[in-house]
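Quick question: what would this complex look like in 3D?
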Amino acid sequence: MSALAKPVARLIDEFSRLPGIGPKTASRLTFFLLRASKEQVDALAEAVRELKAGIVLCRECFNISETPLCSVCADEQRDRSVICVVEEPLDVLAIERTRDYKGLYHVLHGAISPMDGVGPADLRINELVERLRTKPVREVILATNPNMEGDATAMYLARLIQPLGVTTTRLGRGLPVGGDLEYADEMTLARALEGRRQF
Amino acid sequence: MSALAKPVARLIDEFSRLPGIGPKTASRLTFFLLRASKEQVDALAEAVRELKAGIVLCRECFNISETPLCSVCADEQRDRSVICVVEEPLDVLAIERTRDYKGLYHVLHGAISPMDGVGPADLRINELVERLRTKPVREVILATNPNMEGDATAMYLARLIQPLGVTTTRLGRGLPVGGDLEYADEMTLARALEGRRQF
């Protein structure tokens, strides 16, 4: 487009590569930033640039962290006999927001989905089994998403974990079925935690 | 949130400040970038950082430009006797996409909106009148948005321009009323250009 300055076209392009951002939204965001203060634009650029600097996966639970051991795993107050297994780091945040859970986490980084070519080996499942073998864990809460892939993953994990003599529970179905765990409100999630039942 | 690494929280924050991006979308985008390649993240950061570098407003039409005179105003092939008045630089893009318009532009950078405290003096209206006084312009197409503010602005401009002996037209109402010009598809916009009528 001859009428479009190159730096503008470039940012529209980059925004369009983000999930859920179409070309129209990308244009809107770009033209918003064109009118925004230099401070705001620089703050955004800096935040993007620094995103990955110093971010690692926790060596215990594979949540994102700034330290080799994340703040939850390092917290002496947490109950080390319970591990809540989630698909994504965002799910840890959702559960932390309930302030109802005092155990540890394990982040799988996905769910089993043959359609998308994601098998058990692509997730942090071996690492979970290793934790259960070496640490005194009494309960694993399978808090994968309440949808097909999440349920399949929970089923797979339950079968894998039960021979180890660890109790496996699933979040109570206060959760809207077919949804994403990270969108649940605190109350629903808190009730789902309370109402968890044995697999 | 103790479970949230600082660089992650910071980017979620910055994304949330963009229009139409709530905290959930901001989280999604941030976690997407956490998994994206370093190349993609750096490209986005660079595109944001460089957005304003070298961007100026064209001294003739006030469209965004990389040169003092924008590529449309500098183009010898364009018909200098017609000026299309639009609210925003994005509207220039929308009309250029029709490939039906060969005249020049004038970007107001907004519309008259007493509710938002935007009066004629806040827009590039004096500069438009000056152009009409000093350049041999035969027609001004008032292509402000087909909504209340856009119509009010067009009406105001029409009254201002008619004494100068310049024909003023408004885009034909093939446009959906109440909408935004930049969302119109090429065909609708092309038809609206054809069907323009005297004010």
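Answer marked as accepted. Chain A touches chain B through 62 residues (CB under 8 Å).
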